[in-house]
Task: structure prediction
Amino acid sequence: MLPLEHLQNIIAQSVLGNPQFGLSSLVSAGRADPCRRLRIYENNTRASLTATLMAVFPVVVRMVDERFFRYAASEFIRQHPPGEPRLVRYGSDFPRFLGTFEGLAEMPFVAETARLEWAIAEALDAASLPALNLAALDGEASSSTPELMLQPSLRLVMSHWPVLSIWSAHQNGGVPDQADVWQRKAERIALWRHGDNVRFARLTSAQFSFRHSLKKGLGLERAVSRALTHEPMFDVLGALVSLFGEGLVTGIGFDHPQ
Amino acid sequence: MPNKLPTLPIPQAAGIGLRSPHNAEMLSRRPSAGWLEVHAENYMGGSAAVAALENLRETYPLSVHGVGLSLGSASGVDRDHLERMRKVCVRFEPDLVSEHLAWSGADGAYLNDLLPLRYDEAALAIVANNIKLVQDTLKRRILIENLSAYIEFSGSTMTEAEFLAELVKRTGCGLLLDVNNVYVSAHNLGFDAAAFIEVLPAEAIGEIHLAGHAVNDVGDDTVLIDDHGSRVPSAVWSLYAGAIEKFGPRPTLIEWDTDVPVLDVLLGEAMWADMLAASIAFRKRQDSLPVSAPKQSAPGIVVPFERDAPRGQMPVLAAFDAIKPARLAADRDARRIRHAAA
Result:
């Protein structure tokens, strides 16, 4: 008799849609055909994981139409099943998968939009901490430059395609005319969770670099100097005001070594 | 930040599975529900649902139900996932914690479904070890739920019910009796649902699950699919009535996962469960009055599976009907004895 671990590996492969030989001697189902019954598990896995992906990538579903999406999803599930039980973590590789998927070569913006939708999903699963206001920067007459801690849900997405415009055009049942003829145009996007929703902001390259450096924990001084390389006239005060105004600063540390 | 959550024991009454579409209404309305159960895996991040649950936990007793620990995995329990489970328990301080007698992954892949085991001595040793590890890590007893199955593995040397009873002996775990799962498996695999429940050690049963299932025809094979997508069917209510007739009342959960209806439908099903339990308890009290000599209790009539049974609005009513004839018969016997004594 097969050891249990070996048996489970064979059945798992079958459930993932990779045909296995000799299953009928391993399983039974009363008077029913056991292999047909095994397909119920295969269907359950595919259907529930497809539903998970459809919930995370609703705009992509509408861009490529549902039948194509289901086909792509079932291939993705077979090749890249979840590695753990938290389904909110499932789908991080799906944008890259779509980027190389046959049939989407002419529509690179689909995978890029998927990348934005994945960032949204991540933000929705992240904590929302109490925000500080600008006054928190006052009163510390320290010579060191502060480090700003940002909302854990903040995601920064840079794309060569106008993914936020594409995403917005598909909201509230919108069906954009130029569905598959989007023009290449770079967009830099900040997004973060606010209650049950996600908020967005379009950024210049300097603003993007500023927030990106802060998010990486490089400290305010280096964030400013990096922004200045993009834009010598970078408005530091304006960038700080909008960062606090959007509720993105959750902590200030004054002990940054640099 | 130390939690200051109130200690709220789960009552011997009906509760509902908390589903995210109902969060806003639960928070604003605070309807009367005995207790809430959540899937542990949905509360391992930092989403708005987590904040909502922290809030609801102030008011409602809580049960945390794991679906991903894969206690039946021959390769052992995923330690990272167990640690996440531990954190959920620390954060929400649930009164009950449960998992399934199942495996849901192998070779690093998670299948998002619960598969049955081969019920033999080797599997028993593996699952008992996994349960002990989980109980030691969580520092508490957990309840193990019986499975709904579409297949069974060749080479089993015992039934699932015997396997569960043995796990209770070896690990001190409790049991979560999913009555719908018993019914679904019994139909799909051809065993006697009531006999399955008979085998379970009554005192170990700490919770009961109720849910609906779908009926699927594949060729000449009629399969019941455990989709938790409808009202509890009359046959499941009857099996439930038989179970609490035998064990007494237990915390009972209404589960609904697909096509989730408005909150009031769930609360309504929970109310029926409470009424059914109350009517059985009432009858038991009557039976224990000194005048009624025969100590016989209703056997918990199982409504047979009927393919074309009309799907009425309130399937639960059939369960009330089913327990009535037994009661009348008991009354008749009691009267006859009283007459004889007179």
Q: What stands out?
A: DSSP finds ten helices and six strands in chain A. The mean pLDDT of chain A is 93.
